[in-house]
Amino acid sequence: MNETNATIASNETVLTPQWAPLPVCLLLTFLTGFTGNGLLLMVFATHRALWTPFNVYVVNLLVANFCCIVTQFPFDVYSTLYGGWGLGERVCDFYISAAWFFQPVIFNSHQMIAINRIWAVSHPISYRRIHSIRTAVSLCCGVWVYVFVGLSVGVIQDRLYHRLPLDTSGCQLDPMPQFVWAVVIQVVYIIWPQIVMVVALVVIFMAKRAKNRINMAMHSTVASQGGGAQLSRRSGGDSVPHPTAGGDEHDSQQKKPNRPVQRSNGTLLLVLLTLSVTVCWTPNNVYYSWFFFDQQLNIPVFSAITIILIAFQATVDPIMFTLAFPSLRLALRQTFSFRT
């Protein structure tokens, strides 16, 4: 990907564009991702009914996608189109910093949605009591800080001591002089979020299955008691509401009269996101994990596929949000009808 197709004239490298499938796909992904994430951010900003605690995680992921798209994707298109780097050292510094920061933020923002669902299912009472917009914002900000702390050390070290020559290697971070750091980043910030998302689905499935068994047992007990339970209800006996284990209902903790309760559909969203990231992330995780064991690994076609799929995830996320949330689809229709 970084082989330079260039001619040398007056001691300067002149790069010539080559419209191969990779830069074309990245350009299309840039356009669709910019449109999709930007449109949903505009919808969330203009529809106050969508401002719920769980939707904070959705907006956080949209912001991370959008930042990655506008700061990294144009340079991805440029470097793959020209097969080299002719924008100078300072622009390269910006590109590497953006690429190595925003992508892990995206990975871990997906992970935050999974962790939120585990919390909602495993401890629904504390989730309803503690989880708020302020809590969600704090957790999302913590993700950005967490990624910055882990990534900044290696990026700074690379800039000061290990930067590869631009004219021969292009603009890229060399992980080999910082092998331990690179492996930790790959495992903790890239692979682990995908594992958490899969584990979250298993936890949710088991919790809901256990909840269904409890409900069936309670219904059997009530049925066996017959009219006694009905008599107790009619006589004003104490009734304790049974909290739902799913954590999807009543995402907003403040209920207002004459206003329908919104469902977050967080579990459905997690299922859709897990399916999409399994397709888009797995080839990248396999390829670059394999690279640490075989540094001579060079499969250009497979490498190009991993790059396209990782970029494509930024386009898929807004689609998954729209499929999961009826309220978001309604807001989109209202936005377009208003503009027309």
TrEMBL record:
It is a multi-pass membrane protein. One of its GO terms (biological process) is visual perception. It is found in: Membrane. Residues 225-261 are annotated as: Disordered. SUPFAM superfamilies: Family A G protein-coupled receptor-like. GO terms for cellular component: membrane. Keywords: G-protein coupled receptor, Membrane, Receptor, Sensory transduction, Transducer, Transmembrane, Transmembrane helix, Vision. The keyword Membrane applies. Residues 36-321 form the G-protein coupled receptors family 1 profile domain. It comes from the Eukaryota. The chain crosses the membrane at residues 20-44, 56-75, 95-115, 136-156, 179-207, 265-284, 304-325. GO terms for molecular function: G protein-coupled receptor activity. This is G-protein coupled receptors family 1 profile domain-containing protein. It comes from Hypsibius exemplaris (Freshwater tardigrade). The lineage of its organism: Eukaryota, Metazoa, Ecdysozoa, Tardigrada, Eutardigrada.
